[in-house]
Design goal:
Elements: H1 2-24, H2 29-43, H3 45-60, H4 62-71, H5 76-89, H6 99-117, H7 141-161, H8 167-184, H9 189-212
Helix pairs in contact: 1-2, 1-6, 2-9, 4-5, 7-8, 7-9
């Protein structure tokens, strides 16, 4: 009962938002779910930007963190202390990569219970293929198509957003959607439609990020390399500091030795 009382406000908010897109905007129920997904992902853009920056920072500092792991391999407590210290010194938040997923969890729960408790109210087809978005996904052949698209989009989103993961961990994360299909198939079709849409958004976001966002690793000094402060002039700048390379001094040549002229003797007659 306590859980139901906590989730009731989430259900009411989700139902009101879906009613707005369906009644005021005039979208079908299925496309109202797609619109809700887009609104949620737009609202999560600040968290997504932090996620991308955190992943790029982890990728840029990966060699240094591996050195710390090798150095304190036998001492787990010391390893955690040194890693946390390294994170603070370099302004890295490892938990930032999980923020968008955690923020979407209440939306997922609210949509699930809304489709479950208001199935008589929220119904309808999607693209004239899925007959009922409130029914179980496997109740119609089109649900299997949605499950295939969901699995492919989940694998693709993991591929684009999991670049900082270990290779073994990344392979496991890309394989898990295939295992979870049997579990996801028991959900209403509208919920699978929500996850499919958010995964496709993540794929598009990964493509845009790779093209537009500069790699932070190129801005960071190499591990073990010299760190230049704002007061230190670059090596290739002249005294004026205007970026013009200073002329290299020519090597001094030793003074030329006087040339000896050999005197010719007089020939005897």
């Amino acid at each position: 009962m306590m859980l139901a009382s906590i989730l009731t406000p989430l259900e009411n908010v989700m139902k009101a938002i879906l009613d707005f897109f369906h009644t005021s905007v005039g979208l079908p129920w299925a496309w109202s779910i797609v619109a809700v997904t887009i609104v949620v992902r737009v609202a999560l853009v600040p968290l997504t930007v932090r996620q991308i920056h955190s992943m790029q920072a982890l990728q840029a500092h990966a060699p240094e963190m591996k050195e710390i792991q090798k150095r304190y391999k036998g001492d787990r407590q010391k390893l955690n202390e040194e890693l946390m210290k390294f994170y603070r010194e370099n302004n890295i938040n490892p938990a930032a990569s999980c923020l968008p997923l955690l923020a979407q969890f209440p939306i997922f729960i609210a949509l699930y219970f809304t489709l479950k408790h208001y199935s008589h109210h929220i119904h309808g087809s999607w693209l004239y293929v899925v007959p009922d978005i409130s029914a179980k996904t496997t109740s119609h052949w089109s649900g299997y198509v949605l499950l295939a698209i969901y699995a492919g989009s989940q694998i693709s989103s993991t591929y684009f957003m999991g670049t900082t993961m270990d290779k073994t961990q990344r392979r496991i994360m890309m394989f898990l959607p295939i295992v979870f299909i049997t579990f996801v198939a028991q959900f209403p079709t509208g919920l699978v439609l929500y996850w499919m849409t958010t995964n496709l958004w993540t794929v598009g976001q990964g493509l845009v990020t790779r093209r537009l966002v500069p790699q932070r690793g190129a801005l960071l000094p190499e591990p073990g390399g010299p760190r230049r402060s704002s007061r230190t002039a670059p090596k290739d700048e002249g005294p004026s500091g205007n970026g013009t390379p200073a002329a290299e001094p020519k090597p001094q040549q030793p003074p030329a030795q006087p040339r000896r002229v050999k005197k010719k003797g007089r020939s005897k007659r």
